[in-house]
Amino acid sequence: MFRGTFEHAIDAKGRTSLPAKFREVLAAKYGGAEGQTLVVAPSPLDPCLRAYPMEEWQAVEETLAARGNFDPKLNTLLRLFVGGAHETPVDKLGRMLMAPSLREHGSLTKDVAFVGSLKFIEIWDAEAYRVWKLKQREQVENLARALGDLGL
Fold first, then answer.
1. Where are the beta strands (DSSP E) in 90-146?
2. pLDDT in tens, 51-99
3. Are the CB atoms for 66 and 76 separated by under 8 Å?
């Protein structure tokens, strides 16, 4: 399972390195990091990307395909999520090249945060991820205060 958060630089051409811990997961669970292809897709929920090992991506596609294509909301998800996905090889040094459309979706320009999310990896602009985490902490603190006020 992918867990933890790691920051790496991304260059102007969109090249970055997959964190060593995540390469270890690929090697142990998915048959190796070298020559592995990840499917990187724009997140439908947040301004980040999702990177799936091919085996996990195929499970996502099968789940979506089983739902049919007559639901307008599902069709929107398919167009944005599946239609925006790119197969992204990881080279023997653990480097990967992000497609321009994916970099644009995630606003990836300088530093990226790789965030383990069990079966996939989120890829965020590092500063945007810090801001997002801070906002979430504030919301949790507000919720905790409200529950305390209620005696819960």
1. 95-97, 111-117, 120-125
2. 999 999 999 999 999 997 788 999 999 999 999 999 999 998 999 999 9
3. no
Rounded Cα gap, residues 38 and 53, in angstroms: 5
What does the pLDDT look like over 9-62, one tens digit per residue? 999 999 999 999 999 999 899 886 566 899 999 999 899 999 999 999 999 999
Q: Quick one: which of 39, 130, 125 has its CA closest to 81?
A: 39
Number of domains making up the chain: 1
Does 136 reside within a domain? no
Whether residue 33 lies inside any domain: the answer is yes
| CATH code for position 73 | 3.40.1550.20
Q: Whole domain around residue 68: which residue ranges?
A: 5-125
Nearest to 41 by CA among 61, 21, 24: 61
Instruction: Tell me whether residue 108 is in a domain.
Output: yes
Strand locations in 10-85 (E): 15-17, 37-42, 49-53
